[in-house]
């Protein structure tokens, strides 16, 4: 199994551009989440999903959209990038009833200029 | 307000030394996890504790959950350079699907 995969690994955007960060998992996990990691701030939850067709907001959802059309994929969309969105983004998944034990992807480092 | 406070924030020690990292909160957690993250990679789960007072061992790492389920500690015996990394604690409250992370302890073990 590949586990949780994320693309791209690195991305540079200009302010106002849009893009989608891709996340896929092949473990048939029901739950998927997006986090951002900033220096001195730890990991903060952006959006999460408990199953296909169901999404909800986390701690820092503003400026981000998500959808979950399949169990495997959970893309994160930035509609109009801002410098404050410069961060490292991690996707994670877990099984239902797995005590929140998450498997993380390798991350996407995003820079917005 | 940070729900989970980790200390120390940075720790640099020599190979062979022992160390303890703390994760504290004023809130009760139904479960608490420890992850290790290496540069350029995602966090990797080390352990989950769910019962107050629970102690789990993973080779040279000992994890303890406080009796009141508000705090946890990670003790490493005879640290090795391979233990270098960012140690993160994370907790879930009640039936919440949301995991709350501490800011992490960056450990460096020098040969």
Note the topology.
The complex is a heterodimer of chains A (113) and B (111).
Chain A: E1 4-7, E2 10-13, E3 19-25, E4 31-38, E5 42-51, E6 54-57, E7 64-66, E8 76-78, E9 87-94, E10 103-104, E11 108-112
Parallel strand pairs in A: 2-11
Antiparallel strand pairs in A: 1-3, 3-8, 4-5, 4-9, 5-6, 7-8, 9-10, 9-11
Chain B: E1 5-7, E2 10-14, E3 19-24, E4 31-37, E5 44-49, E6 55-58, E7 61-65, E8 71-76, E9 85-92, E10 99-101, E11 105-110
Parallel strand pairs in B: 2-11
Antiparallel strand pairs in B: 1-3, 3-8, 4-5, 4-9, 6-7, 7-8, 9-10, 9-11
Give an account of the 3D structure.
The complex is a heterodimer of chains A (113) and B (111). Chain A is built from no helices and eleven strands. With 113 residues, chain A is mostly beta strands. In chain A, strand 9 and strand 10 (103-104) form a beta hairpin. Chain B is mostly beta strands. Helices cover 0% and strands 53% of the residues of chain B. Chain B is built from no helices and eleven strands. Chain B has strands at 5-7, 10-14, 19-24, 31-37, 44-49, 55-58, 61-65, 71-76, 85-92, 99-101, 105-110. In chain B, the strands form two sheets. In chain B, strands 2, 4, 5, 9, 10 and 11 form a six-stranded mixed β-sheet that branches. In chain B, strands 1-3-8-7-6 form a five-stranded antiparallel β-sheet, with no helix packed on it. In chain B, a hairpin with a 6-residue loop joins strand 4 (31-37) and strand 5 (44-49). The termini of chain B are far apart. The model of chain B has no long low-confidence stretch (mean pLDDT 93). Classes of the chains: A mainly beta (113), B mainly beta (111). The A-B interface holds A 4, 31, 33, 35, 40-45, 48, 50, 56, 58-59, 90, 92, 99-107 and B 2, 31, 33, 35, 40-45, 48, 50, 88, 90, 92, 97-99, 101-104.
């Amino acid at each position: 199994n590949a586990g949780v995969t994320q693309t791209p690994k690195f991305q540079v955007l200009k302010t106002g551009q849009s893009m989608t960060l891709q996340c896929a998992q092949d473990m048939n996990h029901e739950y998927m989440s997006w986090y951002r990691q900033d220096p001195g701030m730890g990991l903060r939850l952006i959006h999460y999903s408990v199953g296909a067709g169901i999404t909800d907001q986390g701690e820092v959802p503003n400026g981000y959209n998500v959808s979950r059309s399949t169990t495997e994929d959970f893309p994160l969309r930035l509609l109009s990038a801002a410098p404050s969105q410069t961060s490292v983004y991690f996707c994670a998944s877990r099984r239902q009833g797995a005590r929140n034990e998450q498997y993380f992807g390798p991350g996407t480092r995003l820079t917005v200029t | 307000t940070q729900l989970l406070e980790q200390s120390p924030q940075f720790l640099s020690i020599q190979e062979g030394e022992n160390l303890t990292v703390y994760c504290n909160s004023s809130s009760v957690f139904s479960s608490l996890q420890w992850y290790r993250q290496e540069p350029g990679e995602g966090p990797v789960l080390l352990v989950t504790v769910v019962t107050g007072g629970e102690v789990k061992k993973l080779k040279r790492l000992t994890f303890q959950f406080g009796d009141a389920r508000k705090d946890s500690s990670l003790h490493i015996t005879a640290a090795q350079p391979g233990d270098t990394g960012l140690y993160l604690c994370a907790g879930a409250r009640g039936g919440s699907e949301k995991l709350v992370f501490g800011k992490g302890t960056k450990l460096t073990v020098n040969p």
